Amino acid sequence: MSTIPPKVKAFLHRHDLSALEFEPGSTPTAEAAAQRIGVPVGQIAKSILFKGKDEKYRMVVAAGDKKINSGALKRTTGAKHRMASAEETREVTGFIPGGVCPFGLEDSPVVILLDVSLNEYDTIYPAAGTDATGVPLSPDYLQQITGGKKVEVT
């Protein structure tokens, strides 16, 4: 039985995408997801929610082997950020850490930022709203369907 949230299922269906699904809890980190899917860690598109001093939420999606540079994020957005807490993440996106994804957020206040590190790969794997999923797609298609802004923050 699928544990993918209905809003993510609907989003994926609208864009002709399907998720790889695994045992619950099996892909909560980029490293675990890469091992489970059988790809380099960089191909896992990790999604991290940040809250700016300007009170805006921004989701950075980056290659799984990269670290977010807070100074670059501040220069890009004009605001200092902190990582959102697990509670804030769940409240704002509906997802738990380990399953955060850029899908199904059309009705949320979240701005999606897609780091250029994703472009190192033809296929990337963001989660599908759970800690046991991965959605294969290209970085360009991810930008097209999410409206994410390309940035350099790693």
What does this structure look like?
This protein is α/β, with parallel strands linked by helices. The chain has a single domain, classed as YbaK/aminoacyl-tRNA synthetase-associated domain (YbaK protein, Alpha-Beta Complex), CATH 3.90.960.10. 27% of the residues lie in helices and 21% in strands. The chain is built from five helices and eight strands. It has helices spanning 6-14, 30-37, 70-77, 86-93, 139-146; strands spanning 20-21, 44-52, 57-63, 81-83, 111-115, 125-126, 133-134, 149-151. The strands form two sheets. Strands 2, 3, 4, 5, 6 and 8 form a six-stranded mixed beta sheet that branches. A two-stranded antiparallel sheet has the order 1-7. The termini are far apart. 42% of the residues are buried. The mean pLDDT is 96.
Tags for this model:
154 residues; YbaK protein; six-stranded mixed β-sheet; two-stranded antiparallel sheet; 5 helices; 8 strands; 27% helix
Broad shape: globular
Q: Tell me the series of helices and strands, N- to C-terminal.
A: HEHEEHEHEEEHE
Strand content: 15-25%
Q: Specify the biggest β-sheet.
A: 6 strands, mixed
CATH topology: YbaK protein
Percentage of residues in helical conformation? 25-40%
Which class of secondary structure composition applies to the elements?
alpha/beta
Look at the structure and give the mean pLDDT.
Answer: 96
Can you tell me the number of structural domains?
1
Tally of extended strands? 8
CATH class: Alpha Beta
**Ranges with pLDDT <50 over ≥5 residues?**
none
Distance between the termini: 36 Å
CATH architecture: Alpha-Beta Complex
The whole-angstrom Rg is 14 Å
The CATH superfamily bears the name YbaK/aminoacyl-tRNA synthetase-associated domain
Number of helices: 5
